[in-house]
Amino acid sequence: MSTSELEALRSGQLWEEFCEGLKSAGKEILAAGVPEDDLSRAEGYRYLTRLLRLSLEKHLEFNDPACPQFYSLSHETAKIGNDNPDNFYQNCAVDGQRSYRITGNAGQVEYLSMETKAGSFAGQGDMAPTGHVTLNDLELGPNGEFELLVSATPQPGNWLPMTEASDNILVRQTFRDRAREPKLELRIECLDQQDAPVLDPVEFASQLQRVVPFVNGTAGLFRNWMLGFAEHINELPPNDQQMCLRAGGDPAIFYHNSYWQLAPEEALLIEFTPPGDCRTWNFQLSNFWMESLDYRFQRIHINRSGARYEADGSVRIVVAAESPGSAFPNWLSTAGHSCGSMLLRYVEASDHPPVRTRVVALDTLKAGELNDHK
């Protein structure tokens, strides 16, 4: 940082520029193609406050790769990019030129993946994976314990690769019933010599300058995704999987992202037959900002363990403002929304069967008059 930038910190100019930059993020909420209803507008501004919270955590509180700590960059009240309600996400800052050790216990989690990545959403940048392991890749002790080395240099045994450009780790813990199943306790330590952290004014000024670009970049990236998904409203075609990976997706997951839009009297039927060889799958509803709808209070997602299956092994999900009745047990609520995003994931699937969708009158389902062709 130059002398002039340090002086900007001393004089308060840096803070004023931070506040002005944050103000500019509001343009994302008013951009072309964004729904103009009051709920989407309110959620949009709330989204910016949530992204700000996450960005402050990422850049100011958990930013030291020499003294790494796990934290969550997506959770119940701050969400990014169609966050999975079945997941517990953990993130950690690392340095690709250092070495780390992660220790934990496998427990009974449905799916566990750990990835090293390079980059962030600041400036709508990429978060491409630089290394990836799942629970199946790990050698476990007799009680499920494991130790995982993380480095750019190959290591014997359990090893999560990095490159010199790697700067963060993303962990996904996927559950059958997240509210009732215990999370894995993971610990990470840097194996290189480091001193206890002390706030450095020069570093702080640099970190603060990265906060707003993350907010703007994240909001802009996923708004643009939604504009693309608007080309197939109420359909669920496969994503561009490389696009998903560049945005932080898991290479073991196959993604169907799309846009849903329904009137109060309409219902969306989604029908598919899950792959025979598939660790798990789930489907979720989100708002326009690609935040999962509030799964703490609403039934807005379903997975392999909780779904009711048809006699032929297929699954029928109904998305509607109201329950269509007991004949459709896989009903998901739109939670007061008229549009948003939706996502079907297959995890470690042998194939990716097509997904059928159609919009029908909600009263038709309630009356049991659905034409049951597939």
What does this structure look like?
With 374 residues, this protein is α+β, with helices and mostly antiparallel strands. It contains 6 helices and 16 strands. A 4-stranded antiparallel β-sheet has the order 1-7-3-4, with no helix packed on it. Helix 2 runs parallel beside helix 4 (201-229). The model has no long low-confidence stretch (mean pLDDT 94).
Give a brief description.
This protein has 374 residues and is of the alpha+beta class. It has helices at residues 3-11, 13-24, 38-61, 201-229, 241-246, 362-366; strands at residues 87-93, 100-105, 111-118, 128-134, 145-151, 159-161, 168-174, 187-190, 253-261, 266-272, 280-285, 301-303, 315-320, 331-333, 339-347, 356-361.
Beta fraction: 25-35%
Class from secondary-structure proportions: alpha+beta
Shape: globular
Mean pLDDT: 94
Number of strands: 16
Order of helices and strands: HHHEEEEEEEEHHEEEEEEEEH
Major sheet attributes: 4 strands, antiparallel
Strand order of the largest sheet: 1-7-3-4
Number of separate helices: 6
Helical content band: 10-25%
Distance between the termini: 63 Å
Radius of gyration: 22 Å
Uncertain runs with pLDDT below 50, 5 residues or more? none
Spell out the key features of this protein.
single chain; 374 residues; alpha+beta; four-stranded antiparallel β-sheet; four-stranded mixed β-sheet; 6 helices; 26% strand
